[in-house]
Specification:
This protein is mainly beta. The protein is built from three helices and 19 strands. 37% of the residues are buried.
Length: 313
């Protein structure tokens, strides 16, 4: 436990940190993750940390987790609204057989033999900005985009050169996800690896000089609030395009309040008003791990036809 007392959280001390920024974009327009980025701790300075800023043309929201060497440092929500109208399909009724968090649902899906699509990923793009500014506004201004904080500047202090908790190469894991898809077109995630400009010896001396009331509070293992990230997306058979102007809205997971349910993808034509989704009563599941795929409206010959929901093993 002694090692854990060497951990502290700090925010934005520009003069005491250096940064190395990497830029990432989502591999799909509509995405909910989970998106994972792994950095490697320097392990030689007075501390390692991270900061994540989204340069975005619209509001996004979700949840972000940061773990250092397998130890969960933070797990919290970001954003209070989402501009994702083209990525969601109304308010379908969706349920699953049984409950559980994202991890257990994922395992159940694999055990039941359901086909999963490729895991969502963030694709790295060259970062051409400067490392000097520490604010998100300065990072996003060259792109003409607004800055939204996903994970604030978080430093793990090191006061022992032989620290076993955060050695060189230790995994700095960032995970980002949302309950429903965000519209990520044009969004650039700026992931910054922060390192202290001080040595562990200098950091130890500084920590020793702090008054008790001013000393950072060592973080405790963060307990995830609510639920974990969604399972891997399911493979969908995309039906024939309904009209020449229709756009495909891919399926996605939605949290029902007790479990994850799959919302089937569909063709949407903005010229034709879609009726409100029907309320369905799926009844008992046909077996353990089955997923109820909610019904949806399908545009046929210029009119919407309701396609009822079904259980999928």
């Amino acid at each position: 436990m002694k090692t854990l007392l060497l951990i502290a959280l700090a925010t934005g001390c520009a003069a005491d940190t250096k940064s190395h920024t990497r830029a990432f974009v989502a591999d799909t327009t509509c995405g909910q993750g989970p998106y994972d980025v792994h950095l490697r701790a320097d392990g030689k300075t007075g501390g390692d940390g991270i900061e994540v800023i989204a340069c975005t043309p619209r509001r996004i929201s979700g949840r972000a987790m940061f773990a250092a060497n397998g130890y969960e440092v933070s797990n919290r929500a970001f954003g209070d609204a989402t501009d994702n109208q083209r990525c969601v399909g109304g308010r379908p009724t969706i349920v699953t057989a049984g409950t559980g968090d994202g991890a257990s649902t994922t395992a159940a899906a694999g055990d039941a033999g359901r086909a999963s699509a490729a895991a969502p990923v963030l694709v790295e793009r060259p970062f051409t900005g400067t490392e000097t500014p520490m604010s998100g506004d300065d990072l996003c201004k060259p792109l003409g985009l607004e800055a939204q904080t996903i994970i604030g500047s978080t430093m793990m202090m090191r006061i022992d050169e032989k620290d076993t908790f955060m050695p060189a190469g230790a995994d700095l894991h960032i995970r980002i996800w949302s309950d429903v898809p965000n519209d990520l077109e044009g969004v650039v995630f700026m992931v910054r690896h922060l390192t202290s400009t001080k040595t562990p010896k200098q950091m130890k001396k500084e920590v020793a000089s702090w008054e008790t009331s001013d000393a950072p509070v060592p973080p405790k293992r963060a307990e995830p609030k609510g639920h974990g990230p969604p399972p891997a997306p399911l493979v969908e058979e995309q039906p024939a395009r309904t009209t020449a102007t229709a756009a495909w809205v891919p399926g996605y997971w939605s949290w029902t309040g007790s479990a994850w349910g799959w919302v089937a993808g569909f063709w949407r034509d903005e010229r034709v008003a879609m009726p409100a989704p029907r309320v369905e009563m799926p009844g008992a599941a046909p077996g353990e791990g089955a997923i109820w795929i909610g019904g949806t409206w399908s545009l046929r010959a210029g009119a919407y036809v309701w396609i009822g929901g079904r259980w999928r093993r």
